[in-house]
Specification:
alpha+beta, 5-stranded antiparallel beta sheet, 5 strands, about 40% strand
């Protein structure tokens, strides 16, 4: 990974942390996030309320898409540390489309 890409990824992680924590505030807190924009992968570790151990969400492949004025993170391949979630996602949500707020989209797409 180039030095510039690593700096960009680290900057983006700093921008994403408060957004993700705000999004998750009613169900848990973000413990860790790792981004590799070169391989288009993202690892998120979350402490969920009521769970005895953190859950790992490994987005193995994502794409960014823009429709109109809205940007989206399209999850192409994902793996959870809980097998039942993997099975449920495959059954009910094979392609996940997550809206990206404009402030974050601006950083992501630079």
């Amino acid at each position: 990974m180039s030095v510039l890409r690593k700096i960009k990824d680290n900057t983006l992680v700093k921008v994403l942390k408060p957004f993700i924590n705000s999004y998750l505030s009613d169900i848990g807190t973000l413990k860790e996030i790792k981004l590799d924009s070169n391989t288009k992968s993202l690892l998120v570790v979350i402490d969920l309320k009521g769970e005895s151990s953190p859950i790992k969400i490994n987005i193995l492949k994502y794409e960014l898409e823009k429709k109109g004025n809205q940007h989206y993170l399209i999850v192409k391949k994902i793996d959870f540390s809980r097998e039942w979630i993997n099975l449920a996602i495959k059954k009910w949500r094979p392609d996940m489309r997550v809206p990206i707020p404009p402030a974050i989209a601006t950083v992501v797409l630079k």
